[in-house]
Amino acid sequence: MKKWYLAPLAAVLLLAGCNDTEDKKTESDKKDAQKTEQTEKEDSANKTQEKAPVFYKIGDVVKLDGIELTIKSAEYTEEDEYSKAEKDKVITLAVSVTNTTDKTIHADSSDFYIFDKKGNQLEEYYGYDQFAINKDLEKGQTASSKLYFDVTAEKTFELKYEPAFLEQSKEVKWKIEMD
């Protein structure tokens, strides 16, 4: 008769022991899940930071694959009397491009694009007699010129440089603040 009491008691102890192990596993699993979730959040934040574009400002010397680019100034200029701007204004950007590589590069104004605050690409302005950059630069040579764009009267623009001659697609962006 004593054996009959031992069987249910052994079963209860066995189940209680299993339950305690499952609780420990659950707590461990929760901690692992929290660590994984935290790591995923950090990875996501890092990817967002990597994708966020870096904007340079007027006067910054920007280096891109051995090319040094500088936007020296930005100002609104009067349109030519014989060639009216289609939009409100003409923005003139003074630009400098220096070749610090060992090979010849081509500097061209068509590698520059300007966008308004809504992200619309704006057109170049061809009304002036002065020509923008379009030349080959040997090692150490610098070309300084002006870029002209037909724009609306806004306070902020985004200028993008994306050279066609680079083997890999790269770009540089400036935030152009107008007074």
TrEMBL record:
InterPro entries: DUF4352, Immunoprotect_excell_Ig-like. Keywords: Signal. Residues 56-165 form the DUF4352 domain. It comes from the Bacteria. Residues 21-48 are annotated as: Disordered. Pfam families: DUF4352. This is DUF4352 domain-containing protein. It comes from Viridibacillus soli.
